[in-house]
Design brief:
This protein has helices at 17-20, 22-27, 56-66, 80-93, 108-119, 134-142, 163-171, 195-207, 231-234, 266-275, 282-294, 296-320, 352-360, 386-399, and strands at residues 43-44, 102-105, 125-130, 147-151, 153-155, 158-160, 177-183, 211-215, 241-245, 259-263, 334-338, 362-363, 365-366, 377-381. The strands form four sheets. The protein has a seven-stranded mixed β-sheet with strand order 2-10-9-8-7-3-4, with helices on both faces. Strands 11-14-13 form a three-stranded antiparallel β-sheet, with no helix packed on it. α3 runs antiparallel to α11 (282-294), α4 runs parallel beside α11 (282-294) and α12 packs parallel to α14 (386-399). It is an alpha/beta fold. Keywords: Aminotransferase, Lyase, Pyridoxal phosphate, Transferase. Its EC number is 4.4.1.13. Belongs to the class-II pyridoxal-phosphate-dependent aminotransferase family. MalY/PatB cystathionine beta-lyase subfamily.
Length: 400
């Protein structure tokens, strides 16, 4: 089947965060707040869900489940589900998972908020790498745990670990770091950490008895030719690694509210199950089964389309903003672009999103929304039809 990623789908009045909730989320404003552009004039390239249709195989599975006519209390009682997901991990990552480690969560953000108090005490700290997905910091704030930053090193758009900084902070007893939240592939930079990087970070944590939560939600969205290695695969005996995966980014199922959390440590897993023994949506269950068993070809075509979208942006940036810092990321569908040389001199880095909203009619996320180490950057979502991307790029060019 040939899938149509050029289709423009109307998301208005669907209660979508992307379309209807941006005022509250990006600007913490009232839903009726006025901006320089009307709602229908905005191009939405911000939150990390796609403007592509969810795969038809998944929609068909949901329709078939609806035909069963009853949507009652649901959990996973059929081992087929776990066999399907195990096969997926084997096919894509050559990773032989133990399905007994899996607990389910309505998302990775809720999982982070739940895990932090299960893993570390109130006087213990969390290490994150910045720029960072903001919920990593919020998981610490929410649970009254101190969050320590280790800035990634960057040169010409290429990011690298500052391993010396990580090691210094982890070994500093006054910081009392007991949890490292890893993001691989990294959000917002799209960096896929090499096995060498992962081994260095893993050994550092093991030597210092540090928990690792590895958010790998973007791992399916690799550029062609790039490979992903789950850190837990490299350290199968260490029971203080928790891996988080989900179909939400990969198959545009963010509203599906179903994530896989691998907890090897029996004590922590049992406590999770005692506190959070959730029911799930029957529609989410069949959607996820269809995603992992029937959508390999859809994902292949999606990745090709995204690769071409990134090539388009790369050529556009090099032509019109040659001093901008941009490198096609290893993974994700998010472009992370440094526009320092082109932004107005008096621009407030805390207001980049507002500047672009009122100046260009584009909704995007400024680097300030990623905790630290993101000044002068914007993050734009390229998981949308190419015609929309071209229109958005022209608006940015005309504004700057």
């Amino acid at each position: 089947m040939k899938y149509n990623f050029d289709e423009i789908i109307d998301r208005k009045n669907t209660d979508a965060l992307n379309y209807d909730g941006w005022r509250q989320y990006i600007f913490k404003a009232d839903k009726d707040a006025k901006f320089a552009f009307a709602d229908d004039e905005f191009i939405r390239m911000w939150v990390a869900d796609m403007d592509f249709s969810t795969p038809p195989e998944i929609l068909d599975a949901i329709k078939a489940r609806l035909d069963r006519k009853i949507l009652g209390y649901t959990k996973i009682y059929d081992d087929e589900y776990y066999h399907i997901f195990k096969d997926w991990c084997q096919r894509h990552y050559n990773w032989n998972i133990d399905t007994r480690e899996i607990v389910l969560s309505p998302g990775i953000i809720p999982a982070l908020n739940r895990l932090v108090p299960l893993l570390i005490k109130q006087d213990e700290s969390i290490l994150i790498q910045t720029p960072s997905y903001t919920p990593f910091k919020q998981a610490g704030d929410y649970n009254s745990r101190q969050v320590i930053y280790s800035d990634l090193l960057e040169e010409q758009g290429e990011y690298a670990l500052d391993f010396a900084d990580m090691e210094r902070k982890i070994k500093d007893s006054s910081l009392n770091i007991k949890l490292f939240i890893l993001c691989n592939p990294q959000n917002p930079t799209g960096k896929v950490w090499t096995q060498e990087d992962l081994i260095k970070m893993g050994k550092l944590c093991i030597e210092n008895d540090i928990w690792i939560i590895s958010d790998e939600i973007h791992c399916d969205l690799l550029r062609n030719g790039v490979n992903h290695t789950p850190i837990a695969k490299l350290f199968p005996e260490y029971d203080k690694i928790i891996t988080c995966m989900a179909p939400s980014k990969t198959f545009n199922l963010a509203g599906n509210l179903m994530s896989h959390i691998f907890i090897k440590n029996e004590e922590v897993k049992n406590e999770w199950l005692r506190l959070y023994d959730d029911f799930i949506s029957p529609l989410s269950l069949v959607a996820t089964k269809a995603a992992y068993s029937e959508c390999d070809e859809w994902l292949k075509q999606l990745k090709n389309y995204l690769d071409d979208n990134f090539k388009l942006v790369e050529e556009f940036v090099h032509t019109h903003f040659p001093k901008a810092n941009f490198k096609v990321p290893d993974s994700t569908y998010l472009a992370w672009i440094n526009l320092k040389e082109y932004l107005p001199e008096n621009i407030d880095n805390q207001q980049l999103s507002l500047y672009f909203a009122n100046k260009t009619g584009i909704l995007l996320e400024g680097g300030n929304m990623f905790v630290s180490n993101g000044d002068n950057y914007i993050r734009i979502n390229l998981a949308c039809p190419r015609a929309i991307i071209k229109q958005g790029l022209e608006r940015i060019k005309n504004a700057l």
